[in-house]
What does this fold into?
Amino acid sequence: MLESLYQEALDRKANPKEGSYTNYLYKKGLDKILKKVGEEATEVVVAAKNADKEEIANETADLLYHLAVMLADTGVSPSDVQAVLDARQGKASRIHDRPEITDY
It folds into this structure.
């Protein structure tokens, strides 16, 4: 899924198309792309809080699309991300919950 979005984003970057939203993002630059990634991530959180499956699916699709554009723009491939995930698999987490604060 992400790979196909990424390939489409790469293709659009190499072969601009008049009126393309993807090309609009590339023209505006990385800051605009990152702003959209942040907006879409927030919308996914809101959709999940609303427990609306259709809204979650729509907002997740938007987030994945914008992530693919960001990856293509920064030269990071989905296989680069997969390598990180593969290296992490099976490792114990180093994140621990903080002790509850009882004294105020």
Observations:
- The chain has a mean pLDDT of 92.
- The longest helix spans residues 53-74.
